Amino acid sequence: MSTEPETTEDTGPGTPGADTAGDTPQADGADADAGATGQETDAPSEDGAADGDSAGRGDHDTETSADGDVESSADGESGAGGSAASGDAPQLSEAEAELAAQRVERERIERRKAERQGPVEAGGKLSGKAADLLAAVRAVESGEKPVAGAFHDPEPAPRRVVVPEPERRPQPVTTSSTSPAAAAPEAVAAVRAVLTTAGAPDTLAPQVAAVLGEDADRRLREDPWQLLRVAGVRPEQADGFARALLGAECGPEDERRGRALTVWLLEQAALAGHTALDAPALTAALTQRSVPDPDAAVQSALAEGDALVFQDALDTASPAQEDTEEPEERPVRVLIGLERYALAEESLADGLARVMNSLPKDDGPAADWEHAAASAPRSAAELIRAVAGHGLVLHTGGDASGAEVAALLHAVRSLGLRGWAATHTPDGRRRLASRAAEDGLRDGPEGAPDLHVTTVAGLLSGAEGPGRDADGALDLDLLVVMDAPQLDVETAAVLAESLPDGARLVLSGDPGVLWSAGPGRVFADLLAAHACPTVASRTPDPGPVGELVSGIGIGELLQVEAPGKEVVIVPVRAASEAVHRTVQLVADSVPRAIGIPAEQTQVITPGHGGAVGTRALNAALKERLNPGPGRFGGFDPGDRIAYSPASGRSVPGHVVKADAEGLHLECAGVPVVVPKERVEQSVRHGWALTAHQAVGTTWPAAVVVLPGDAAQSLTRPWVYTAFGRAGRHLSVVHGVEQALPRAVAEVPQKPRTTRLPALLKAQVPTAG
After folding, report:
1. More confident residue, 294 or 121
2. Spatial contact of 403 and 433, defined as CB atoms under 8 Å apart
């Protein structure tokens, strides 16, 4: 039977929700149900632990994959059994280096915490001129000679000369496990014996030993619920393990069980994006897990230091109450969180406050900044003026707003300052350079744009970017972070703490896209806090796709004119029909009617599982576009893949070859070698991705698949993100009927519980 589809040249444009066929052949009679079951969402539930199970419900186990998505399995045991990292690599990968940088930052935070527990010295937190003045006053009081230069301004620093970054050629990167370091063989053997005794899968032994330490076997015997600290293990499995190990002593009222479940629920909430949970929500979730006294369980976790409690004042006082001499006591919000994210959020608030309060006064006359603003193209002048007078600036806009960032970087370099931009993906770096070229910002060798753009991972690891000064701070004057909504609280904290005193920070991004895979909502919290200037871009995204996406951003599903078939709607009813139409679009219709080849077309669907998830679509697309036996973990040379070097990050690429070293990939022009034992955890086929995997990258064409069973999971940010991945052409395989316009109009981003707004309010006055 021929696989050639029917011609589609006579199809016309459409709008999501319209009853038109678009650029696709008619259905071939597939009769599968449109309401296929088993759909998996492409990110953890953002409802947190308040529903009693933030990572999944029912009898299915839930695991978090390397790209931050949640996968379900009907297997009653945790299948986690990844092996340790490969041998010593010639050099660190970006993921390893980024994790190492984060570990250093966490150690620094731990030291700060220890220092806070000791006696506090007055003025100990002062720095710069304030610290010098305090030292001078103390010297005078003690009869000593004051510090020279404390009571007069320093000489202005000379204008810096920008030195071009040396060219760095891409080198092969060998990945290794991002899990804790492998434990000693004898420790693993001891843990395996304990697991076997209780009937648990011995494949968990390496992970348990790595997480719990060298005495993991003793800790497991003393507290079997410590097994919940291992990723992928669920409470039902830990309860079964405890019953087998403790016998009659095991019961739901066991203090150890309540404490372990408290920590587990907080970890699941972090997977859903929360940095803390309201105390009532946490106790309600513990009650659903059959903990008889949830308050006592929380108190036990707090007493053991497994969690921290916070009381954030609620701003409910009226102006009349504030004017009284004795204002009423304000109510507080009690939050429970893990120390890791609590310290990161506090460190981020401290770092941002320092950036806002340490703007230098000697980096160029105001007239020079004004001249640079007046010379800037498009609507970049307002952004340049805001940056001239403030240490922290927020910049909002779609993909086209990158032109304003390019103009800002060009202006800063013309003033002799060291300006850098950091994107989350290599594609973001390419798009920013493209915007600069379109606007004629050419100041590099041979007229090429020279904007100094790096990736966030490369910047933090030191593999890219300006490097660091003698104090360990980034050697720059201005940092612009693109795709800022993708910043999780830990990465943002490391970035803020890495900035030198006097450096400016611009966070630029589209507030309508999905938030970060990791905990926190940094960009949204800063926008809501009004603690610094916000500049909204006036540069619209071009074309029918840009018009459609802009309407979605304000909650409207517009009908757009698409004379060049830029937007095509393909209505489907059955799951099998959705898969058939998707393959037809990618392999035949879009290349022939639009002129975009299959390798430049990206399929986006809501989840990994189900009849129209990424697994089913990738299998069908591989069979059509690159059939093969899949001899190396299901992969063949030429396969499109999504590689996850660290949790929450996904980089598109393709398979080059496979040998004894592992699976050889090419991701954004960089060769990557994934050891055999890591392939299953960190590499997926990539013809079809979820919106969370695709965020931060655009393709010439995108095919967004909306199967009937995805209707309840659609939100406006998901639709906005998925549709916005299309550069020139968007096809929508539409099977959700009125659920799509309803999601766009009525279903906003799911809330996340964070502490950043309260922390910022305590340190920085609102900017209005």
Report:
1. 294
2. no
- State the Cα–Cα distance between residues 147 and 124, nearest whole angstrom: 17
How far does CA 467 lie from the centroid of its chain? 24
Tell me which H or E stretch contains 313: strand 308-313
DSSP conformational letter for 243: H
How buried is residue 364: exposed, middle or buried, by Cβ count under 10 Å (0-12/13-18/19+)? Answer: middle
DSSP string, 169-191: ----EE----SSPPPPHHHHHHH
Judge contact between 496 and 529, C-beta under 8 A: no
- Do residues 756 and 518 make contact, with C-beta atoms less than 8 angstroms apart? no
Q: Find how far residue 365's CA is from the centre of its chain.
A: 38
Q: Give the other-Cβ count within 10 Å of 561's Cβ.
A: 11
Of 526, 517, 524, 509, nearest to 488 (Cα)? 517
Burial letters 167-194, b for 16+ CB under 10 A, else e: eeeeeebbbbbbbeebbeeebbebbbeb
**Coil, strand or helix: which one is 148?**
coil
By mean pLDDT, which of 139-153, 372-386, 682-696, 731-745 is the weakest?
Answer: 139-153
649, 95 Cβ separation under 8 angstroms: yes
Angstrom distance (rounded) from CA 433 to CA 448: 9
CA pair distance 258, 278, nearest whole angstrom: 17
Residue scoring higher pLDDT (483 or 16): 483
Q: What is the pLDDT of residues 560-615, one digit of tens each?
A: 999 999 999 999 999 999 999 999 999 999 999 999 999 999 999 999 999 999 99
Local confidence band at 255 (pLDDT 50, 70, 90 cut-offs): very high
In this model, does residue 158 exceed pLDDT 50?
Answer: no
Q: Tell me the Ramachandran region of residue 571: left when phi exceeds 0, alpha when psi lies from -120 to 50, beta otherwise.
A: beta
Angle at 574 between CA 568 and CA 577, to 5 degrees: 55
Statement: residue 741 has pLDDT above 60: yes
DSSP per-residue codes, 438-456 = HTT---SGGG-----EEEH
- State how far the Cα of 209 lies from the Cα of 183, in Å rounded to an integer: 6
Distance of alpha carbon 607 from alpha carbon 41, whole angstroms: 4
DSSP 589: I
Residue type, 747: V
Please compute the mean of the pLDDT values over residues 63-83 and round it to a whole number. Answer: 40
DSSP, collapsed to helix, strand or coil, labels residue 3 as coil
What's the burial of 368, exposed, middle or buried (CB within 10 Å: 0-12/13-18/19+)? middle
Q: β-strand 651-659 against 640-643: which pairing, if any?
A: antiparallel
pLDDT tens by residue, 670-711: 899 999 888 988 999 999 999 999 999 999 999 999 999 999
- 349 and 763 Cβ atoms separated by less than 8 Å: yes
The Cβ of residue 729 has, within 10 Å, a number of other Cβ atoms equal to 28
The phi, psi pair for 565, rounded to 5°, reads 60, 35
| Phi-psi sector, 198: left (phi>0), alpha (psi -120 to 50), beta | alpha
